[in-house]
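Structure first, sequence second, as always.
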């Protein structure tokens, strides 16, 4: 696998549309963007995006008025199991625009800011499916993984063989963040933003999260 730093340099030199070179510049100081994508499934190759949510964070403030929230017409059909999760039906998305028409607005919204998310690599991989043919590059933004920040605060000093729970619901509960309706792209982005702010504050103050015995859980859908 090509290291991300080397890939970034390659993409910076090979970007198709020079007007998007701003993506390689550092965004405003102390600003990041929390993102989430709802999809037709969890297979990057065969599934597609149906909604995107994003919100800016400046220092320790979530800028709820600076948000990006769009429903997308996917290129693949909706499956019944996915509809049960995100509650969007084929009829709800068939009149929306395809993602390629939303990419310019999304890319200008995030700029060169780091991207925060829960299993954010999946969301970025889904976006890159469309950004790569659009610009000839993948998203160059630095990534900040919520589950990694949480792991460091709760399990970073844990003894070997301890059970680990990195589920979305466990993080919300431990950080005492009130849950919003999940599997809605903007709500999930907003909750990820709240997690980021609380976890960064706890790290800055040297506060760890108390541990209780828990079952090992991995749920990339955030359940």
């Amino acid at each position: 696998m090509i290291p991300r730093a080397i890939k970034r340099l390659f993409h910076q030199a090979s970007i198709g549309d020079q007007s998007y070179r701003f993506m390689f510049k550092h965004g405003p100081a102390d600003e990041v963007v929390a993102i989430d994508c709802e999809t037709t499934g969890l297979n990057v190759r065969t599934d597609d995006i149906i909604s995107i949510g994003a919100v800016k964070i400046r220092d320790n403030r979530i800028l709820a008025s600076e948000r990006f929230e769009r429903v997308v017409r996917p290129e693949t059909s909706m499956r019944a199991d996915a509809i049960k999760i995100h509650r969007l039906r084929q009829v709800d998305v068939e009149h929306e625009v395809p993602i390629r028409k939303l990419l310019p607005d999304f890319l200008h919204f995030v700029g060169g800011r780091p991207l925060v998310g829960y299993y954010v690599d999946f969301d970025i991989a889904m976006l890159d499916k469309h950004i790569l043919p659009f610009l000839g590059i993948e998203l160059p933004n630095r990534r900040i993984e919520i589950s990694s920040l949480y792991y460091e605060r709760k399990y970073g000093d844990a003894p070997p063989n301890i059970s680990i729970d990195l589920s979305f619901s466990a993080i919300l509960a431990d950080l005492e963040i009130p849950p919003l309706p999940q599997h809605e792209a903007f709500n999930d982005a907003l909750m990820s933003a709240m997690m980021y702010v609380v976890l960064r504050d706890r790290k800055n103050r040297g506060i760890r999260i108390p541990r209780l015995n828990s079952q090992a859980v991995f749920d990339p859908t955030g359940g």
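Margin note: The longest helix spans residues 185-204.
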